[in-house]
## 1
Amino acid sequence: MRIAILEDDPAEAALVQHILTGAGHACTLFGAGTQLIDALGSQRFDLLVLDWMLPDMTGHDVVNWVRSHLSAQVLVLFLSNRALEENIVLALMAGGDDYMVKPARRAELLARVHALARRLPAPQAESNVSVPTADDSIEVGAYRFNRILKQASLRGRPVELKPKEFDIAYALFRNLGGIVSREQLTEEVWGRDLVMTSRTLDTHISNVRSKLALKPENQVKLTTIYTLGYRLDSLDAAAAA
């Protein structure tokens, strides 16, 4: 499943992501409610794992927005240190599908996620014909990406990227505004974990940053998040000036 994790505690966020990615899920981290809400405008997730207390709003506020603005079914699992029965009831009544008390325990978390996954519609049968969908292309400002053709362009001009560079760029733009961990990138791009001391990922990130000119002049900003990964943000014209 595609899972968004909303958690402002880096250690807890990393733990939850490690558990879920280890089970084969694609996870994106968010540290604030507004970041997640912004991302939901252009990205699709099957499950949201929400903390209750956040720097800018509550998990209650986030789930209210989700239920009011998103037509597609999105599952919500609250993961909070609020253990009182009244807190759990409030979260479920607000629109949560399940509730789990911190700290995240691997077996319980995976069991709850697996149970929630059974509520999702069955995937369409596979076909030998690959039909492009909205998920196969991304447009962010002056940037265009086509995943099927492995093509990238900036202001209509093609940008030559090697296959793994394209996959990294596509992952960053697909998760615009969210933190993409090093583990997630290496798993998606290389299909395995790299030795953490390896400079392979850093070299590819540097190439992507340079070739795509990921800088404020092009209304984007790529930030390295210490110990976590990378976050690509879209800047408005005023912020980029």
## 2
Amino acid sequence: MSYHEEKSFSIPAIHSFVPEQWKPWIMIFIVIIFQFSGGVYLATANEMVGATALMQEDILMAGYASLIGMSLTFTLMLRLKMRFTSKFSLLTCAIVLILCNLIAISTHNIAILVATCFVAGVFRMWATFECNSTIQLWLTPNRDMSVFFCFIFLLVQGCIVLSGITNMYIALFSNWHYMHWFIIGSLFFVMLLVIFLFNNKRIMKPFPLYGIDWLGAFIWGLLLLLINFILLYGNHYDWWDSPHIRTATLFLVVL
């Protein structure tokens, strides 16, 4: 008998008709799909530049906005985990990411694209945390963070590499749009899994969301986006000879 079986690990959020030994692997499959998803895919940035008439800096700005959204959301994850059920969280994240992918392939407006990628990063991180926190005790029953973070590192780095390879091959044999359609189809499959295999069972009372420093999160997000803008567009606009860079720097100093 394995160590995990001795500890009787269980995931109450998944219906009892699903074998217990399958449940953690279902969560791992779901988190891999969410890790593959996003607003833009930087592995095919050149193809997007040619197809949308945007600059390389525009695509990078959108891609890094997704990372900024992920970093800000991490501070709220525990509150969201204690407020919503796994079923609600995963369905919400899948729906929002599907919409973000649809917007990303249909807009040529850089402001909309950056905002979409920022939102995609927020919900991608929410879904990732929901899955990983659910299987934490399966990975390390003693809550050994050195083991858990090894898994996180392997998951994130592995998905970055595999996502880039998948993206390039799909773009090579078709075009960059099909990566988005592949992710949309995968997220629809995740939604079906969640609808049929998950329940809304709670293990604790819902935790209220009031008391969150939304203003602080907004300021930090804007601060990081301004730094991102200055560093990416500085060379293109000739740094502080440009009114765009001077304005962004002024806002950065004020914040």
